[in-house]
Amino acid sequence: MNSLSGKSVLALCRVFSSPLSLPPAIVGAVRVCHSGVNSKGKVFTKKRGYDITRNPDLNKGMAFTMEERLQLGIHGLLPPCFLSQDVQVLRVMKSYETRSNPLDKYILLMTLQDRNEKLFYRVLTSDIEEFMPIVYTPTVGLACQQYGLAFRRPRGLFITIHDKGHIATMLNSWPEEDIKAIVVTDGERILGLGDLGSYGMGIPVGKLALYTACGGVPPQQCLPVLLDVGTDNRTLLDDPLYIGLKHKRVRGKEYDDLIDEFMQAVTDKYGMNCLIQFEDFANSNAFRILNKYRNRYCTFNDDIQGTASVAVAGVLAALKITKNKLSDHKFVFQGAGEAALGIAHLLIMAMAKEGVPHAEAVKRIWMVDSKGLIVKGRSHLNHEKEEFAQEHPHIKTLEEVVETIKPTAVIGKEGLIPFYIYLNSSKSVTLYSVHSLCFILSSQTPLFLQIVDHAYKQGIASWYPEPKDKEAFVLSQVYSSDYDSFTLDPYSWPKDAMKVQNV
């Protein structure tokens, strides 16, 4: 019996108020024992009994068949009921939809991830549009603020300033050996919420969940890391329930030495191809760290480079509508933080491909921060902002900047709102969501395969020999939320070979 798709299961859950009200035909279709057989075949584990049901990588709940329960020694540890994964999704969704508070929904899903990882990802991928705002932005921000109260079970590696000199030992505490991707934060600039210290762990955990749900990266190959060097958040320091180090942030050489040791320890253990993604570092460290390591390690800063790639992809897509070149436009940015500066730098690189000199490209980019237009001669400009300071009288508000500069595109970010592009025409203004445009682009398989082809042509691919069928190869590496089978591989010898010898 073919199982229902995630979308179908979700739709059923919303149409029928309880499993008992499902039509008999539907119950018969989905209430079956999951065979556990998938393209990846059977899985062997030496674990038995309670260890199976308490391991989220192995646990299938009531989807274990009778044969599996007997062989794994878990018969009696589960209710005498056999459910398909589709029915399990229905049960989760029924519980999910009784919760109106986003934080309660977040806790339910994270608890599921801690209990049954494959079911968690089956639920998540059944409706990415529904669940992404819960497991990541914006609900993850609320979860980080309440992390001390919402904390249920350790997920990720907490490395502190006091562990300096022993980070390699810390990495040995992590149970998985084949790590391909690490998301690391020091918690100083969590989303638009500021310094949350150790509570920032929710960000690497949530981001890596998206690596799996959207990118197909096996969760066992992902490692969330929180570098705890203290916090300057007085509310947290005074809170007896705060779970991080209770002292002011360590800065300067001691901080830099910790980052250096972390980068070296990671590559020593997991190899130079292990991706290290920096997430939610404060501006004062983000650009400096990125420039220091970008050519030495497999690393990137998501707030600077990741957001930039999404926004510039939207701009390039919009050019298909305006039917002109990037260098024909004048850009005004509302905000001059990591994201805005990252987008600006990538726009300059894109204009360079059109043959525009660097100095000319910079003149097409105007930045507005909390103090107004960034212009030459303004005091207290950091190095990153100073690069985009224009020769122009000071202007205080965005509205005045738009009226005076007359840009053809405005790129802005306000709190947790995504970037938008405004394309001016003679009679009207059209609003395009970069976020949507990006997902339209990334959903096109030929585009993705072009990226793979480009990697091999440029000699920057890390897998050799080059696969003949790249699409098949990529799909073979994608994580599947289908349950594995734990039944033994039964076979027998010839009767003569098994004859018992007697005295």
Automatic annotation (TrEMBL):
Question: What residues bind (S)-malate, as annotated?
Answer: R189
Instruction: Please state what the protein is called.
Output: Malic enzyme
What are the GO BP annotations of this UniProt entry? malate metabolic process
Stretches assigned to the Malic enzyme N-terminal domain: 113-294
Q: Which SUPFAM superfamilies match?
A: Aminoacid dehydrogenase-like, N-terminal domain, NAD(P)-binding Rossmann-fold domains
Top-down, what is the taxonomic lineage of the species of origin? Answer: Eukaryota, Metazoa, Chordata, Craniata, Vertebrata
The residues that hold a divalent metal cation are: E279, D280, D303
One GO cellular component from the entry? mitochondrion
Its cofactor is: Mg(2+); Mn(2+)
Provenance organism: Sinocyclocheilus anshuiensis
